[in-house]
């Protein structure tokens, strides 16, 4: 190409110029950005259940069945995946079926949210590819999309109201707009909001005004300055509604906030607002900082003698209960300031709430209203002050106080009908909490609330801490709790006591195993005192006697614990009692000595040791396993820590005496008898005992503090043995009762093992050497079990081990579990073009005329075979490769040793090449083709033929020959297609009357 020569056609790729030019898809209702990208907002996607709508402009040669693939990805992705793939249908054309319409399609919200992460400023390329039926593919230029989310501003927390409940209220610098504010101007602040970004537009509606602010700092609050000129334009109204909203550069919107209502009083000039002197910079009064004192409200201005000031304090408690109070003052001295002290209880009552102060100045019959002052109230105290208890002596409530008075703190929101409760909590002599609650109904809220506590609520709790709390519940409102008054009740006095004694008919000394005795304590001067019996010395590990009340006869009985008196057998100890009041000891009695008899060996009141399950005296030692247990029932005085010894006495199979120690001075850990599994050494000794001999179990326990252990009654057994058989696996089968031979295969995971062993004995199932189950044989010595958790393609080795005798093992049996045959049995369609023309030496297959569908690897049991029900239609080889032979249908069957699967195969587009025997004009060639049933032009067959038969110079027809294509169209104007064999292929020619041999293809069926 010379320097003066340039290319006109075809155009460069992606130029958008040319006969087959394409245009990128365009989102509906997009927001064009300054960088020419298409901005997408949340509402555009949400308005249609299918997602974001796109339009695809009509393109040249648009045809029914064209395949459209739409892509959305970064431009550097080499192999992007389409986000939607569809074919054009009749709906994409006008009624004539040819004139194309603009194609509409949708990309789902899920896809867009996956492609565009939240809080990111990322553009992605959007384009499409078309695969035309005419064979001309194309790719559109790329446009850029930006889906920006989430929306600016906090999310709506309600959804049921027209405004966004999640947005913070705007903050006005003035609480009332009067003439002064109009003359001086004011500010409204929108606090920094969620997802604030540069470029956002914040809209403020202030009454009839609308102000826009474009964000330039994404971290700062938005401040709107309302100048006197702007405020002067406000329309007349009683209140100004102030709202705000924000939308971003793709028009995601937050919606409007809840309204802030500002009273609007043009022309009127209000007095200066009161000042809460103790409030901080954030207009918060901290109740804790007041230290119990009042807070002061300061009025500033010009106050003259005889001016009347009415200061109104309004507020809401933390539970939104309204309160109000008005202070009145007549000025007696001209002043620039006035001070109003507000009682501390009013501040405490609204902790967690808010207060507003306004005042009215009346001078010479004319009244003027001030601006309001607002504060919130914080504090650690509860909203109600602590009750006051009187009389107190040095900060304590004397134990002999006849009556105490409790004054409930003042409560500002108190209403008629309120219920007031007083809680009086202390501890009794056992250290347990005791609480009394009294109540009153309020009939006159102006009067103080006073409760009375008689001496019966004081004296029994001498020396104890006292907590007093009040609660108030106004009608229809929540309960309010007071702070707690923490006090102490005074101490009691000492007394002289008499020693305790045994309750009749028990006498000294006592039998530890007889009926349980009791000791009697008596104190005839008792009122509210309690008593506790004391044992000296008290054995280690025993709790002291409980603290109990005296009965109406001024007496108390203390029954002895069996464990204690058994531990004291053979001992002499001393008993006394302590007198206690309000949790403190106030005196002790003289002591009494009591003796306990020594317990003899083999006392029949103790249980015998035994082997569980042996109900008679005959012991078959061969049946014993490690699961069998030795037991001793609960015995008198059993407690943890007692030393226990258990010995077995007998004769072994060689007539040698045996003394086997099962337990040697072991400490008891429970109070519920003894259960002990037979250990391996004990099992060996038992199984080696001589059949027909006797064996004795001797159990002894150290019950007392000193001395020898006490032997329990002995247990003697007659010894017998069992017949020991080697376990044998007689059968391994599947769920259909088919035997699985040794070392064979199965595809059934439900495998059952059957066998025999000694009668009514336990055996252990081993799989690959691991124990998986324990079975007990039946009366015939048989067992059966279903194996679980078998692993595929792993040799499973099964053995049975006896859990009796010498633990004999069965001969092993093995098998391997395979996965059952698996084949994709969905229908197969072989629609690739196949043309029978002449013999060929190439090994290539016709495209899409073959498909390999083998059994899923690692499934089935070989041999696996493949068979076609009609080989004339489709042939299948031993590897599962299916080849279409003729048009038609067939079934392919895949079979292994245990099962088979079949799937349906449909073969289409199989043709035979036909060549006319003499030269024909174009019209004669068409008529010749029409005479052959189903015949088609050669146009779409040439590519498939070249794949299989090779390039056309190698075809067995004369080189340079010209053949009519028998095609009605495909060339412009009056030109028609011909084929120059080995000389240019298909091209358009104007001579329709020249005589050239025609060729075409026609379908053949199996």
Automatic annotation (TrEMBL):
Gene3D superfamilies: 2.60.40.1080
The name this protein goes by in its record: BIG2 domain-containing protein
Annotated BIG2 domain residues: 862-894
InterPro entries noted in UniProt: Big_2, Invasin/intimin_cell_adhesion
Upper classification of the organism: Bacteria, Pseudomonadati, Pseudomonadota, Gammaproteobacteria, Pseudomonadales
